[in-house]
């Protein structure tokens, strides 16, 4: 048996022995981390990740173990690692974390010094830590910039600097871009330089904002002077603005902006409107307003229409045709990629897509359900799902949640376990199912 005292002694000697040590992530709460940071004159770093996120795993594998990274972060930060869909969900919502990985740098009062997302190589990750430390004593700290912005909307140079700094801090710059475009004197609005600026910032231009106005007023001029590449990008810029407005509304939890997005989305050519994308935006909008009644109404209407317009026989025929096609392709050329598609088609591609959508929408509805009538409606949707496919994990999972809501704990746990056993392992959210079961068991034991 290994003597624990020897292990502790060796670990304490690691820095002196030259043994590389990466980041030390502490298993404590955010409140404890803030208090510890204050006591040790440090800052707080949080890595928000999810179990299914590829770039998160790459950071954990390639960057966090580096000795250079460990030296910088362990010396200056109390480091936390939180799963944004499990134990870190509440804190992720508090700091409006919507992408993974997200890196958050906080002062000892919990105020954001720097926020960034996506995989970052060693030099950039070290630079972010240095910028977070430097921002403490800077007049252009994130907090100061946010406080100054409303008072400097007519200050062209401040706004230009504000956009640059906010971008460095990993913050949304759409408001800054819009404000600067209203007062800037550097470029003529019809010039090639302005065209380049608008193309570069297409995801930071908001529907109804100054950028879109400039674009509309000068579109023909831009097309005449654009290179072939710019003309191609220009033809797509309206879609970029639309998508950027959606992202900004979600990121800032801005219900009014989401409403603007929904109205603009509806004005697109009919062949570009996807009913499920529109539904997603409307559900997010009502979620932002805490309007459960409207949320449930549009969900129920969508599901009922979906059921009414769905022919189970057509689904089964289409899935059988797909399976035969993939089987023929695999038999002729048995590559691993073809085998994966063949296995997926065995489950029924069209049926699985429909059942997964039914599962996700119904669970959102169930979370907000308060009456027997609403629970009864979910029961009808589940019956339809089993008609589409008699034995399927998506309806087992939904039925488990319904049983649990009704207090039928044992049946709920049995179905949840069966759902997990049969859940497609290729689904990136599969890893969260075990956590859902764990939480269900925990609540059942209280």
TrEMBL record:
Superkingdom as given in the UniProt entry: Bacteria
Keywords attached to this Swiss-Prot or TrEMBL record, sorted alphabetically, are:
Redox-active center, Signal
* Residues spanning the membrane: none
Domain named Thioredoxin: residues: 8-134
* SUPFAM superfamilies attached to this UniProt entry: Thioredoxin-like
Q: Which Gene3D superfamilies match?
A: Glutaredoxin
Record's protein name: Thioredoxin family protein
What is the species of this protein? Aestuariibaculum marinum
């Amino acid at each position: 048996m290994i003597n624990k005292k020897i292990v502790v002694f060796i670990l304490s000697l690691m820095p002196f022995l030259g043994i590389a040590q990466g980041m030390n992530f502490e298993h404590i709460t955010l409140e404890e981390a803030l208090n510890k940071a204050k006591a040790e004159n440090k800052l707080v770093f949080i890595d928000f990740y999810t179990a299914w996120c590829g770039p998160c795993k790459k950071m954990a594998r390639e960057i966090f173990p580096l000795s250079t990274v460990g030296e910088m972060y362990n010396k200056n930060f109390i480091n936390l690692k939180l799963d944004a869909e499990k134990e870190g969900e509440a804190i992720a919502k508090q700091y409006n974390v919507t992408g993974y990985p997200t890196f958050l740098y906080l002062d000892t009062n919990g105020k954001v010094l720097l926020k960034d997302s996506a995989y970052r190589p060693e030099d950039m990750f070290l630079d972010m830590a240095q910028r977070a430390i430097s921002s403490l004593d800077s007049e252009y700290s994130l907090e100061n910039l946010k406080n100054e912005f409303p008072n400097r909307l007519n200050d062209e140079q401040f706004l230009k600097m504000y956009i640059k700094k906010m971008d460095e801090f990993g913050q949304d710059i759409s408001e800054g871009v819009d404000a600067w475009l209203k007062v800037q004197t550097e470029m003529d609005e019809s010039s090639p330089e302005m065209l380049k600026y608008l193309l570069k910032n297409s995801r930071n231009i908001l529907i109804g904002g100054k950028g879109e106005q400039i674009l509309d007023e000068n579109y023909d001029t831009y097309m005449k002077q654009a290179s072939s590449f710019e003309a191609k990008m220009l033809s797509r810029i309206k879609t970029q603005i639309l998508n950027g407005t959606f992202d900004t509304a979600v990121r800032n939890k801005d219900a009014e902006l989401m409403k603007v997005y929904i109205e603009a989305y509806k004005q697109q050519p009919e062949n570009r409107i996807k009913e499920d994308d529109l539904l997603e935006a409307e559900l997010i909008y009502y979620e932002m307003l805490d309007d459960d009644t409207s949320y449930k109404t549009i969900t129920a209407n969508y599901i009922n229409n979906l059921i009414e317009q769905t022919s189970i026989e057509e689904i089964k025929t289409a899935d059988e045709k797909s399976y035969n096609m993939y089987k023929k392709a695999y038999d002729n050329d048995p590559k691993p990629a073809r085998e994966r598609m063949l296995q997926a088609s065995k489950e029924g591609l069209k049926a699985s897509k429909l059942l997964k959508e039914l599962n996700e929408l119904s669970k959102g509805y169930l979370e907000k359900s308060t009456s027997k009538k609403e629970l009864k409606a979910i029961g009808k949707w589940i019956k339809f799902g089993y008609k589409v496919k008699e034995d399927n994990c998506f309806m087992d999972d939904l039925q488990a949640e319904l049983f649990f809501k009704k207090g039928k704990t044992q049946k709920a746990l049995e179905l949840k376990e069966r759902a997990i056993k049969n859940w497609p392992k290729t689904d990136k959210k599969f890893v969260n199912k075990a956590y859902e079961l764990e939480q269900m068991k925990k609540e059942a034991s209280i």
